[in-house]
Specification:
The protein is α/β, with parallel strands linked by helices. It is built from 14 helices and 11 strands. Helix 1 packs across helix 7. The longest helix has 20 residues. GO terms for molecular function: transferase activity.
């Protein structure tokens, strides 16, 4: 592998999504990632080849029984030659298999050990899947129509966000030049990503509330709108955007941000009536040249068709490529590893 992380070796004892996604992002950047799998293979292989490929391209693989003496001996050899180890399992399993810095520093005191868990290494073994964390941290409660039930996003936002955060923590500790233990939990990451929502409550006592059509709590209008055909996401964050939009849509008044927030229902009624006169794609074509943040709501197949540069080939698999662009570096993509000894 070539790339900015070429020469860095990372071991992964990963399961399903968060851990494997973290190391795949690093592998795309040139790191050598060795996926340590149990004798029967990592469980996500059972989900299907395309699922496994979407999280494990650009890696090598080795089967080790970490509960055996021989497996532990081979793990020590790999740790001695590696820069980092990332694991996402229950805390008790991480400790039982000796996958912490305290257990592995005898092989390499510069090894960086990242534990990706639900609630922290000392947070217990309570199951912590993506949807459970979204429910536990307030994400589901603040999502959806106010008249309806809580809603979960249509993808694994907690797992993916935690994977990226774990990759950042791993690289930060490598750059420091010191080995050590790094902890990242799904709960902490999701609470961290509720930044301004949490700050409003902690400092001003404002509890998050749901608005229809996913409307923003501060900016008006900033939400989904029905049009003559399809839905449009419109995000007006300042008076300049509003002036350009209002002139194109034929709306008078509401020139200041604070006025639009105070008269939310009136503004939304005026905008909804105006947008009903054209289709979502029509408004997109009219408003984008004016610099207004806007998009018609598209399906995933439509989005992939419109962004072919993001679709890459890794062996027989077509996948979404790395989102990181580095001048002078072109990522290579190889298929996920076969299950070998």
């Amino acid at each position: 592998m070539s790339g900015p992380l070429s020469g860095i070796r990372i071991l992964e004892v990963g399961v399903m999504l968060a851990g494997p996604y973290a190391t795949m992002m690093l592998a795309d950047l040139g790191a050598e990632v060795i996926k340590i799998e149990p004798p029967g293979g990592e469980i996500s292989r059972q989900v299907g080849p395309s699922y496994f490929a979407s999280l494990n391209r650009n890696k090598r693989s080795v089967r080790l029984d970490l509960a055996s003496e021989s497996g532990q001996a081979r793990l020590g050899e790999l740790v001695a030659e590696s820069d980092a180890l990332l694991v996402n399992m229950k805390p008790s399993v991480i400790r039982r298999l000796g996958l912490t810095y305290d257990a592995l520093k005898r092989h390499n005191d510069r090894i960086v050990c990242v534990a990706l868990t639900g609630f922290g290494l000392d947070g217990g073994d309570q199951p912590a899947f993506d949807y459970v964390i979204q429910a536990a941290t307030g994400v589901a409660a603040m999502t959806g129509d106010p008249a309806g039930p809580p809603v979960l996003p249509g993808y694994s936002s907690a797992d993916n966000s935690t994977g990226l955060t774990a990759a950042l923590g791993l690289l930060a500790q490598i750059v420091s030049g010191r080995g050590g233990q790094v902890e990242v939990s799904l709960r902490d990451v999701m609470l961290s990503q509720l930044n301004y929502r949490a700050s409003s409550y902690l400092n001003d006592g404002l509890e998050p509330r749901r608005y229809p059509h996913g409307a923003h709590s501060y900016y008006v209008p900033a939400q989904l709108f029905a049009t003559a055909d399809g839905y449009l996401a419109l995000f007006i964050t300042h008076d300049g955007f509003w002036k350009a939009f209002a002139e194109e849509a034929g709306i008078d008044g509401f020139t200041r941000m604070d006025e639009r927030a105070a008269r939310r229902e009136e503004v939304l009624a005026a905008v909804s009536a105006a947008l009903a006169a054209d289709t979502a794609e029509g408004w997109e074509q009219r408003l984008r040249p004016l610099g207004i943040p806007v998009s018609a709501v598209r399906t995933l197949p439509e989005a992939l068709k419109e962004n072919p540069e993001m679709v890459v080939t890794a062996g027989d698999f077509r996948l979404v490529g790395s989102p990181i662009r580095i001048a002078g570096d072109e990522p290579t993509y190889v298929p996920p590893p076969e299950l070998i000894d």
